[in-house]
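Handoff note, outgoing to incoming analyst
You'll be picking up this chain. Sequence as last confirmed:
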Amino acid sequence: MANSKGEGADRAQRGIQSIEVGGQVLLALAHHGRPMALKDLAREAGMAPAKAHPYLVSFARIGMIEQDRLSGAYFLGPLALQLGLISLQQANPVQVATPLLGELAQRIGHTVALAVWGTRGATLVRLEESPAAVHVNMRHGTVFSLANTASGRLFAAFQAPAAAQQQLEAERRRRKARPDAPIAGMPPAPPLPTWKDFKKQLTEVRAHGLSRSVGEVVPGVNAMAAPAFDHSGALVLALTAIGPAGVFDTRWEGAIARALKACADQVSQRLGAPASVRKKGIRSDA
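Most recent structure output, in case you need it:
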């Protein structure tokens, strides 16, 4: 007697091959980024023009593609645009990035966190503990210092200068109001930089597409953060690695930096960030 459970799993995985083949045409058109002639589109999709053409006819009928009447070139149609816009509206940056944290923490051997910009600043929303014996004690909802943490500086670097300066002065006022109230279990916060010095730090962040902190908040603990952008080019997430200084590589081109950038770029790509933004790691108006 056949294994009904196995058969059910097989049926659940079975697809329609013709749709998958036709999908190669759409992928080629999307990757190329501009209208394409039939022969070029077929070549990029890895099939003969005679095979590609029926798929193009069907896709045109449902609005996935259109054909220019003068040149005969094909381009993405109104249904593709509508699906893209709906996908962008539904994309949740935290939901997109969270499944990637476990593998990243395993690969680099350090704790990895996600931070978003909240009402009080860069706020921790997800945490994947280090696979090593040494852990960094943090909790969800922690608000990072704008000027003294990798996550905070990353968000500041991609804000308008006036907004970043206002945030810095707001943090300075909070420090003056509560000078003897450090976070429980943490040493007193390090002094805040002047705006002139802070601007230099933000320029460095934008130049490298990364932010780093070397023992600033807790002696012996380093951090590095990479930005994830959405379809508008806005910074929506800080992907931050944290670990003990003795084994944490803070080089701009080191293994941790490369892994963070690759993961953040993957998130940005899924959120529809423009290729130019992902490549440079900076916003065009920064």
